[in-house]
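Show me any protein, fold above all:
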Amino acid sequence: MREDLGLAGRSDPKGSINLRIEAQTRRIIDEAAAVLGKTRTEFMIDSARAQAIDVLLDQRLFVLSDVQHAAFVDALDNPPAPGPKLRALLARKPAWQG
């Protein structure tokens, strides 16, 4: 799955991100990093990366029960007939064609 997100085997050069944060937030981050035996930078990168992966997977992966999956496949295999709004949309000339 990580390969699909473009995260495997990358050798991109490192860059930097500068952040301004409140002192209290920085202390919390430092404390959490220390608990895990990480530097602030390691903790922030790991946390941000994990959150980013979760956000991306949320957009790409969904889990269904057997019943939900069957209903989903049935809906794909048997779509409803086009209604008047869809027919009108498909008949309309696209704006980019002038």
Observations:
- Residues 40-60 form the longest helix (21 residues).
- The two ends are 42 Å apart (CA to CA).
